[in-house]
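Sanity check

After download, print the first record. It should look like this:
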Amino acid sequence: MYRWSQLFTLLLAAIVGCSDKPDVTTHDAPQSSPKTAVISMQSIEDAPVLTDDGLKTFEQKHSVQLPKNYRDFLLSSNGAFPSPNCVTFEEDERITASDVFCFFAIGDERPGLSLDWHYDTFKDRIPKSTVPIGRDSSGNLWLLSLRSDDAGSIFFWDHGSYDTFDETDLSNWPKVAPSFHEFQQSLIAYDATLETDGVPSRYSLVKQATEGIAKRDPGFSTRANPGFVWHCDCDDEGKVSMQFVKYEVHAVTTHTCGYTRLRAINGLIKEGHTRLPE
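Expected structure tokens:
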């Protein structure tokens, strides 16, 4: 386990650029490689076993009916760390990428891994008729739609956007897959050739930050520390720094993160009012 006194004080600064190729590999920061059809799921240690009755209780409590392919996944593997874990999708009229840090578990009491905790914490911010099924390493959510017109589809939801649009409107967020099964099958190993437009993907920034710590502590990985998350800061010149902070505090605070500012500085989106902390 990483020494938190050192971790809190560590600030990894990276001038964002596609030519930076770290030379340290960790299991949750894979090196560039081609797409693979083999998806493995590492069980979440100490996650509770989910029964059909337990799943029905969750559905009844929240008045939802989950799609069969997602229900089957939860019953066979109540949450998981996928490998590979990279998702590519369109945002700002460009292809970008982030990761699936984990698929959430029902009944888990750890905030960073719990579907229940995310559902209750974000219910007033995420679009109606959606369920948060997982997160990336920066605390952004993967949402499962239960709306009649796109039921079962998966969307990307950025927790740190500007306060210039309605974040509860699902049409404002990128649709990344038409079903949970296809979302799983779309996971690929990260490909560095994606980084061609001058603005690094979220995946790239987390990868560089993770490998930066791993150079000092070869045993470090974000997966081994699910109670922490990568927070992105960006200064007025577009210089990015990544901080490894407590997940629960980071997630519950409404704010505009540095990645949104980075996109604005580079002209991908218009700069706007900051979402104020709650």
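If your output differs, re-run the checksum step. Summary of this record's structure: The radius of gyration is 18 Å.
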